[in-house]
Design goal:
3-stranded antiparallel sheet; two-stranded antiparallel ribbon; alpha+beta
Length: about 200
């Protein structure tokens, strides 16, 4: 059998083959905050749960479970390590780019697999704030979910347009929208044209 070249960094391989902080039993873990994103019908779903040190205002434990590929597993494993011990406000700002950088990179076609972890984390942090009556700390943008598979909002389409997307292919390259089931394509295309008109019409 011909030897197949591994497309990922050694660190990605390490986190994929030995993922950290996997959630085995959610009930036994008894989380302070819980976030679920993605769409199981499209094959990618992420559950993230956290425990919070309420005195220090930090994430004391972070566990996760996903139906995802090697990139999703490795990036979420790394994310769970990075945010443990981090203040809630700082953890909320973690982006996929931060995690990809920590992993030493991912193939371009797999970047979209790294976007679910940080979104599930923000949902878990907001859930913690909600359960503890800290409603003033909840940060939920006034935005509309367009792509359920990749959890892409209208605001991200607008950002992509502002960053130069002018065709649907360019929009996909920047956001990974409509790369799974494709049902959101017409709506995404419509919004892209609307934002081009909004920001760049003469």
């Amino acid at each position: 059998m011909a030897k197949t070249e591994w497309a990922y960094t050694d660190l990605v391989r390490e986190h994929f083959t030995n993922p950290r902080n996997i959630l085995d039993d959610e009930e036994a873990f008894n989380p302070d905050g819980r976030g679920m994103v993605g769409n199981p019908q499209c094959g990618d779903e992420m559950l993230m749960v956290i425990k919070v040190d309420k005195v220090k205002n930090i994430i004391s434990e972070c566990r996760w479970k996903t139906y995802g590929c090697a990139s999703a597993i490795a990036s979420t494993s790394m994310l769970s390590e990075v945010v443990t011990g981090m203040k809630l406000e700082e953890a909320f700002k973690i982006t996929p780019k931060d995690i990809v950088k920590k992993l030493g990179g991912l193939p371009d076609r797999k970047i979209h697999c790294s976007v679910l972890g940080d979104k599930a984390l923000r949902a878990a942090i907001n859930d913690y704030y909600k359960k503890n009556g800290m409603l003033d700390k909840i940060r939920e943008e006034n935005r509309t979910l367009i792509c359920q598979c990749m959890t892409i909002y209208d605001s991200e389409i607008e950002d992509a347009v502002l960053e130069g997307a002018r065709t649907f292919i360019e929009l996909q390259e920047k956001t990974k929208i409509s790369t799974v089931c494709g049902q959101c394509r017409d709506r995404a295309d419509e919004l892209m044209l609307k934002y081009i008109e909004k920001h760049f019409a003469r």
